[in-house]
């Protein structure tokens, strides 16, 4: 919550307690987002509550950020699932030594079988000598993202 309060405070340049469209636009430009007027209007419309015509309250900002973060998390999870499925050549739901070694080799890492086995040992929670999907997610996601 403190992070959201700090972010809101940075966006609310005129300290009115609400964020106006031009404040949001300036903030997006400052972080390098190439946002056109239509995208800005859509984003602003999603955030604002009708009570604050043309402005975004802190409460509405928090709701938007929660939705936005959930969408980002879901996209990240979808991408991780896609990567896992690409590596899992025999489609048994587990990454075996050969599959993981092949994926690492394709990525430019030349590792021998023993090195890959050591990697698997570090992340193999259930000690089955393979990496299942949950273990793979734990490896790639932040702990707080995984807990959600």
From TrEMBL:
Record keyword Transferase present: no
Matches recorded under PROSITE patterns: EF_HAND_1, EF_HAND_2
Keywords, in A-Z order: Calcium, Repeat
Pfam families: EF-hand_7
Domain of life the protein comes from: Eukaryota
A GO term from the CC aspect: myosin II complex
Domain EF-hand, residue spans: 1-34, 75-110, 111-146
InterPro entries (UniProt xref): CALM/Myosin/TropC-like (IPR050230), EF-hand-dom_pair (IPR011992), EF_Hand_1_Ca_BS (IPR018247), EF_hand_dom (IPR002048)
UniProt keyword annotation of Nucleotidyltransferase present: no
Full protein name: EF-hand domain-containing protein
